[in-house]
Amino acid sequence: MKSLTIILIMLVFIGGFTACNDELDVQNPNNQTTYDFGDSELELQEAIIACYNRIRLEGTFARVGYTLDAVRGDEVWNSSQQWYLEYDNLNSPGTIGIGDEWIWRDNYHVVNRTNFVLSKVDGVDMSEDAYNQIAGQALFLRSLAYYELATYYQTVPLITDYADYSDINTMYASNNTQDDVFDQIDADLKKAMQMLPSRDEGGEWAQGRATRGAAAGYLARSLMFRHKFDTALIVLKDIIAGKYGHYELTADYGDNFREGAQYENNSESLFEVQFMDYGTGGTDEEWTPVNISSEATQGHAVESNYASQDLGSWGDLAGSPWLYNLFKKENSTDGRLDPRLYWTLVTYEAEYNSYAGLNTAAYPNGDPRSNTIYQEDITATPLSNTSQGGISIAKFTNARNNIYSAITNGLHCGINLRLMRYSDVLLRAAECENEVNGPTQTAIDYINEVRRRVALPDLQLADFPTADHLFEQIANVERPKEFGCENGRGIDLLRWGFFYDAARLNQLVQHGYYKLDGTASTEELTAETASASSFQYYTNGHEYFPIFQSTLNANPNLVGNSANKNEDNGPAFLAKWSVRPVVE
Closest Cα to residue 224, out of 233, 215, 216? Predict the structure, then answer.
């Protein structure tokens, strides 16, 4: 009897344990892994949205990934003399997180997610259109991340197979050459151009997504970085001809820097990073990849860096006096200031008060143009930084939009960041035409289309006797006035080789003069009148950012780049290409 009792008790325990094991095998649908996710079209559509989310982080385009290229250029300087200083001076020691680590970290999150999508998409049954849309977007976003990585860090690991992350022998990848990375960028973008719909074909779906035109625009950028001007010119001409969708300049330049559905994803935009309009998101600030709050603000912090500390921002970055005076050298045909000054720098200009309600060629929408910023009237240019001074930056802030009266520091600004505009296509086409065929009327016509939007007088071919003369106009007049304080100027200086020619480097020093006197200095500065220049501190090799030392320590296969080694890239650049001489 005792034996029977013991047997019954054991059977109860066995049954109980079996029942528990059955419950433990139940999968939590809220805790899926990469092994059991991505096996349907719907899940891959969700994964693609997650890829877009990663380009909206601090290290990609929500803050430093956007602004650090601007401060690397010659039209923005570090007015706080704290954050960003080593990147403005181009001499980071490789131990500072904001540039050496964050941009690397967040762009590789984009690479990781897009690689995941591409590892799954071939195994899922779906229509050809759905396949092309999913794979094409992943290829574009991966190429965008690698474009940022290669232009910030020069030699980076090229990881294109998601399986590599699961093997310790391939997870710790070594550096690839910059050419290797750009070869992959070109290949990805060419595929994306074939797979994605144009913005016209995509309709509502294409609003805010990568399209064939976006891929074509970035392919031209990639080709031009390696001086493949003849091939890039073909792509650019096709964009202009409408092969990849219809693009045109907005009538009002300012429409590229306003928030709202009537302005964002407009006719001029090839690709932009989407942020929710001010006040429509949540309250949690999602700075890093580990933050996945459903209540994220879904805004950016570019305004917090660019705007005036007088008005609540951090006051870290300012526009250069050189850029301000470049705008002042040439008025529109109606006598008014170039309206791009209004949208680029927050300066007090007495004549703005007389523009209210005037519908002119320079201000086609007839909006009130006054000295009201953040809903406050100003009688003097506000300081970028209350201690150091400097000219506050207007672009991708609400200084000129007057949506609110005070800046809330952090990820709150809702203006979409237009990463590539049609005006860039036109000016790049002019540059390529000039490189391939010398100064031609075709190149002049491309430039004049951009100038006419802001009612500047047409350029005349006769005024540019050589390709060097026209290049100078494009590089140091047209591009900085059209794209001043936007992401991309630092990359331009790299591809032009301005760091590898003594006269060009001296020119950058002159452009980079600033004054630390607690004023919004707008006078043309010289070596005698300036406090310093960003470029006087430049260390060889630091036109690129160093790879973070902790990243190098963690990966035994990774070595430092030219910035880690203080290595001069000039000989290698000049062995392949030349630097156009300065033309006064």
Answer: 233
pLDDT value, residue 97:
94
Q: In the chain, what are the domains?
A: 41-195 (1.25.40.390), 302-409 (no CATH)
Q: Region 332-359: what's the mean pLDDT?
A: 93
Q: How high is the pLDDT of residue 8?
A: 47
The tally of CA atoms less than 13 A away on the side-chain side of residue 110 is: 29
Per-residue pLDDT tens for 170-192?
Answer: 889 999 999 999 999 999 999 99
CB–CB of 291/304 below 8 Å? no
Kindly list the distances between the CA atom of residue 445 and the CA atoms of 329, 457, 459, in Å, as whole numbers in the listed order. Answer: 21, 12, 8
**Tens-place pLDDT, residues 281-318:** 999 999 999 888 889 999 999 999 999 999 999 999 99
- Residue-wise pLDDT for 127-153, tens only, equals 999 999 999 999 999 999 999 999 999
The one-letter code for the residue type at 328 is K
Instruction: Please count the other Cβ atoms lying within 10 Å of the Cβ belonging to residue 583.
Output: 16
Q: Identify the burial level of 577 via C-beta atoms within 10 angstroms of its C-beta, where 0-12 means exposed, 13-18 middle and 19 or more buried.
A: middle
Q: What are phi and psi of 466, to 5 degrees?
A: -135, 165
What is the residue type of 576? K
Instruction: Assess contact for 98 and 86: CB atoms under 8 A.
Output: no
The SS3 assignment for 527 reads coil
Q: The tokens of 355 are what?
A: 């523009």
Where does 241-320 have alpha helices with state H?
A: 302-306
Distance of CA 175 to CAs 15, 99, 182, 464, Å? Answer: 56, 18, 13, 43
pTM above 0.85, yes or no: yes
Residue length, the chain? 584
- What lies within 8 Å, CB to CB, of 222 at 6+ separation is 143, 147, 182, 185, 186, 189
